[in-house]
Structures are given as structure tokens and as C-alpha cells.
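Subject: two folds for Thursday's group meeting

Dear M.,

Sorry for the delay on this. The cluster queue was jammed most of the week, so I only got both jobs back this morning. I'm pasting them in the order they finished. Each block is the input sequence followed by the predicted C-alpha cells. Could you check whether the formatting survives your parser before we put anything on slides? The first protein is the one we discussed after the seminar.
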Amino acid sequence: VLLMNPLTIALSVVALVLAVSYPFMKRFHHLPQVHLGAAFGWAVPMAFAAQTGEFPPPLAWLLFVATILWTTAYDTMYAMVDRPDDLKIGVKSSAILFGEADRLIIGILQGLTLVALALVGMQAGLGGFFYLGLGIAALLALYQQYLIHDRNPKGCFQAFLNNNWFGLAVFAGIIASYLFSAG
């Protein structure tokens, strides 16, 4: 990163703080999943800054928020698997914080992720193929809700893993939108 422009280098300091501090967050607050999302998502404003040398536009920050929402949703599914062990050893997680509302809150986070991504698509001028990909991602989110319905650790882990397909659906929609758009 030291070979990048000064703004990207400055933003990388935030990335470093997020990455280094994340492993300790289960000791300090109940939302380490949000911290993880910020650590993953910080690549978005850094990439914009690296490409343009300017402060990232609102589109980048909206994508950053979408990343935090999505990561919080899928990592809460994973935290549901670990909830009994986390309670025994005294660490914190969103699954513990959300308690019996975990499935509802995950569903809200998934819905907000899809809304944020739809707004990104509108701002970026993506076409119908992108929205088709979002539609498939929405169906996958519903399937994940089915998998976590009983809070069975195996189902929760399967839902967590299923997010690979969620991400692929969104990515394929972006690629297809660019490949097959008119103009």
C-alpha cells in the first residue's frame, strides 16, 4: 500500500486498526460481527481512493454499509453455531445479544443489505441482470432463513456457508450487467 497515493495510504491506517483489533472484539462488545464487516468493507473506500486519488463518493460508502450489513447477518449465523460455547467462556457475540430475536434481526439485516445493493445498482447504472442477481440473492436469503429456523447448529452453519452463493449471485449480476448492457 505504500506505493499508492497519499489518501489510500492514510485510509490503510484505518484498515490496519480494524484488522488488528477485530480478534479482540468478542471481549469488549456484543457486535464483533459489525467490526468484522467494517474490516472487510474498508477495502471499498480504499479501492475508490486508490483508483481516483480522491475521497470516495457516496456510492462507495453505500457499498461499505452494504458490506457491514451483509457480514453482520452471515457472521451472526456463524455465531449461532458457537453460542453455547461463547456463553460458557464468557465472550460476546451478536447471536448472544440478539437472543430469541436472532432470526428476525438477521432477516432485517439481509433485507437492508439487498436494499443497499439495489441503491448501489441504481447509482452505478446497472441493468436488469444485476437485479436478477439480487433476486436470486433474495431467494438465497429466504433459504438461509429456513436453514436457521430451528437454530440447529448444523443448519446455522449451512446458512453461513450458503452466503458464498449469495455473493456469487450478486457478483454474477454485476458481471452480466456489464457484459450484456446496451451501449
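Second protein, same layout:
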Amino acid sequence: MAITDYFKGFERKMIDVGDDVQINTLIGGKGEEVILLLHGHPESYLIWRDIAPELAKKYTVVATDLRGYGDSSKPKGLPDHSNYSKRVMAQDQVTVMEKLGFSKFHIVGHDRGARVCHRLMLDHTQKVLTCSMMDILPTLDMYEQTNREFATKYWHWFFYIQAYDFPERFLGADPEYFIRNNLLKKATPEAQKNFPEDVLQEYIRHYSNPATVHGISEDYRASAGIDLEHDKIDRPFTIKTPLLVLWGANGVVGNIWNVLEGWQKYASDVQGFRVQDCGHFVPEEKPKVVLEALLKFLDMKKAL
């Protein structure tokens, strides 16, 4: 199956967001309301392959590759990693949506994309109608509450942040092994069938590019530095955007933290649930559950 077959009817665009950065963008559907989908590590827009086409029957859907990932630009990181801060990555997405003609939209993110969603809500409150985030808590909380279990299972959080080019050399040494090991070990055994070979090969293609490994490293370096500075400043701010949070019942985050209570500390309108028989890669492991939850949440908020 060709990768493009997963997104039949979608148009692909490379959108210039400034500073010689282009964001790989797919757009489909014709609904009046617009949904922006943001992927996680170490993947691309392809994580939405079983969800975006269904959403497009009712909504206009935009799916992008974050800077540093997929087929989007991968600029060299600055000394303070600020060009990979979630503030800059969120602005990338706002610029994409503005150039597509969308001033307000729903956002949905998994993993790293959800962290961009968090910053997008804080920096561009008036643009975000609702937000749905999967398998995360705020970055600052997770670093502050790190324990042995988290550091062991999320070792890459602490490896990627090492100085250039230590992680780039090691993590990029065997892209195929890294992708298969990272994705399949974090998914439940039953869900591994949801990662067909053509999809794995696409993720391997991206990760085989040294610039991608560098971009991802910079994403994590920013999260352990400049992003924490931004998050500390905004920590007292109460998020008013309606928020849906989902997490894998068999995942690391949900087993260590109470995800719902964690977000209720910072947002006034939060709902969500653990997805049963699911690991970290919620949209790919349980796309039907995610789709049903998204549609129900969006319909409910539209009715209010």
C-alpha cells in the first residue's frame, strides 16, 4: 500500500513559516470547523492514518509534520535550542493555519505534538476552540516528578538532551533497530499489528536522515531548558480551553501519574479517560476508541 493511499482526498503542501522553515502539511475534508492534528516522537503525520480520513467526513482536517520531523524542515539547533522551543513550534502551526485561511481551530496532539498543543493553548488562546491531548502531563511536572521507573522507561528523554552530537551519533547509528524497538516495545502485543511494514518503513526513512535525529534531539533539549523557563512563567495561568485527555492504560505515563487530576490542576474544563489495552501510541493502537472520543467531545462542545 502506498503511503499516500492512507490519506486519499488530502492535498499535500509545503508551507513556508519563515526563517527558511517549511512545514509538511496535509489538508482534507470540507467541514466548516477545522481540526489540526499534531504527531509525536519519533513519527510523522502518518500516526493519524486511521483517524484523519474519518474526521474529514465531518470536519476540515489539517495534519502536519512538526519541525525537525517527517518531511518538514530540520534547521540546525541554536545554542539555547530556542528554535525548537514549543513556543516556536506552536507558532509554526499557527502560521500554517493562518496561511490556509483558518483563524480558529480545534487541536489534537499525541506525545510531542501534545506538548506543542499545550504551548499553543497558552500562547494563542483565542485561536484554539478545543484541545485533545494524548499520553502526556505538562513537561515541567514530569521532569519535577521524575522517578526511577520513569527515567528507566523514558530513558530517551535524558539521552536526547545530552550535548551535540553525542545522542545524534548513537541514536542515528541503526535507524531501523531504533524505530522497531521504540515503537513496538511501547505498544501492547495485540496492537503491534497496527504498525504495518509500509508505515514502519516510512518512519525508518525519516529517522535515517541525520538531520531528523538532530531535530528530534533539539526538540528534547529545548524541553529540558527553555521550555521549562516558559512553563514556569505560565504555571499560575488557568487554561480555559475545553480539554480532552486520553492515555494508555498500559503506558508509562498513566501507570505513574493520575493524568486527569494532573491536568485539572491547570485547566478549568477537563475530561478524559484511560484507554484500555493500550500502550503509549494511543492514536495508532486504538484509533477507533480515539475517533469515537474525539467526535463525542467535539459534538458536546459544539452543542454548548
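Two things I noticed about the second structure. Strands lie at 11-18, 21-28, 34-38, 60-64, 105-110, 128-134, 243-248, 270-275. The longest helix spans residues 287-303.

Cheers,
T.
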